[in-house]
Specification:
It contains nine helices and two strands, in the order E-E-H-H-H-H-H-H-H-H-H. The protein has 213 residues and is an all-alpha fold. Helix 3 crosses helix 4 and helix 6 packs antiparallel against helix 7.
Length: 213
């Protein structure tokens, strides 16, 4: 899945959200990072060494239901569900709920998408990926690059989408560009399960481990 997803901005690190099955479409991981570079980090719901309690129980069940409503295009009901979750959302889910809520509001408004910053634009693209709308997400990422050609996180997002779609050459090209702009993307990609389809390609290995003879 792309962008080991939480609500992730690919700054330099990010968090990953639990995957909620999308009918007929694979889900990618949510990603959002910390600061200067925007990339994915470890999952907020499942941390190394154990599971977070946020991944079980009534809240998580309601959260899954809300995301499923969003995936089905039932934005009005998804918005109501997310609004009810926000006040009591655990810290690792609050940002995701807000991101999905923004997506619902934009969809219901039906107006042209305008984003104050490329980071917010990227968040919207991530929400599209998380709900299985890969082509729409690709359009958003390409739009980011049209205005911000040095946005390494957008190239990284495209590489993840290419990996999911089996577009090997495009994946290598976009990932190479992301690494060129921000070398930390190389470390991120090494632990990113969304590149699973690429692991047997020697060019991918060479890109991630150039120091290995």
């Amino acid at each position: 899945m792309i962008l080991a997803l939480v609500s992730c901005r690919l700054y330099s690190g990010s968090t990953v959200a639990p995957r909620v099955p999308s009918p007929g479409k694979p889900m990618m991981q949510e990603a959002r990072s910390a600061a200067p570079s925007r990339k994915k980090a470890t999952s907020a719901a499942t941390k190394p060494g154990g599971q977070s309690s946020a991944g079980t129980g009534p809240f998580f069940q309601h959260y899954q239901s809300a995301v499923q409503l969003l995936q089905q295009g039932r934005y009005d009901k998804a918005r109501i569900a997310l609004e009810s979750l926000l006040p009591t959302a655990p810290a690792e889910f609050k940002e995701r709920c807000q991101m999905y809520l923004t997506t619902c509001e934009r969809q219901l408004a039906g107006h042209s998408l305008d984003f104050p910053t490329p980071e917010e634009h990227y968040d919207y693209a991530v929400s599209q990926i998380n709900t299985g709308y890969y082509e729409e997400a690709r359009e958003q990422l390409e739009s980011i690059l049209a205005g911000h050609p040095e946005a390494d996180y957008a190239y990284y997002g495209l590489a993840l989408l290419d990996s999911i779609a089996g577009r090997t050459q495009d994946c290598l090209g976009n990932l190479a560009r992301a690494i060129e702009l921000n070398p930390r993307n190389r470390l991120q990609a090494r632990s990113d399960s969304d590149f699973q389809s690429m692991v047997d390609d020697p060019r991918f290995t060479e890109l991630l481990y150039p120091e290995v003879p």
